[in-house]
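Worked problem 6 (solution included).
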Amino acid sequence: MSNLLPIKKIYCDTKFRRADSKSTSNFKIDLPQTLKLPDNCVFYIDDVSIPYAWHTVIQNVNDKLYFRLSDPSYVLPEYFHADYTITLDSKTYSGTQFVAMIVSKITAVTGGAATTGAYDTQSKRMSLSVANMDINFFTDKELTGNDISWGGISYNTANLYSANELLSNELLPSPVGNTANPAEYYLMLTPVRNIYMRSPNLSSFNTVGCNGMSNIIKKIAVNVPPGEMITSYITSSTDYLDCSRATWKTVEVQLVDINGNDINLSGLNWSFSLLLDVMNPNI
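Solution. The predicted structure is:
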């Protein structure tokens, strides 16, 4: 097979995705010609440009919190308590806005419990308390275990849609707050820290992600604030993947987070380039 490249560079833009594409983050693009790639052929991904268009809270991804209100005046046989689920509004929040939304949701779902919340901009911590009651947000591990005796609306342990990561709520047991000592949570309002480009037809399946994904072709750090453009370029001559003897007619790509959820770009387009090269097998 000839080692001559049929083409050097492919510019891709989701504006030209196929009509049967699921979205701008899960799409197919037909190339104008079929490419038969030679031996020792590799490709790089360069010139990536993605709009930061998703929200802090994403519907059916991280929009649920599960909490318990306990009356500490009941000591035998145990605290009197009630369990609740709140659904957060899918929006982009500052710390102050996020805390205000949490307070309003707790007040509404409990029928008017006097809830107090505050956000410290220097420590990035939320403090929360309910008058005359203890409050705690259950962690994901507690919710999927069998030892909390949950009494609220039932939920799917396989799909919690939990917002606990936004609260950095992982300590076991979950912290309990009251008026004298409010519960405190470090707010991490960036739900997606890295974007993973996956491809079932470009990948040579020689990469692996922490959750077992084997068709990752690039990891892109989210290093700009919401509303700006995320860019990524080649930073190393070794950052390539093998595509020897591959035949390309369609470019199929999916943008996902660490949990495999599609990134919601709100219909906005993005672009990238595929650079082809032939490696010297003797080096």
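Discussion: DSSP finds three helices and 15 strands in the chain.
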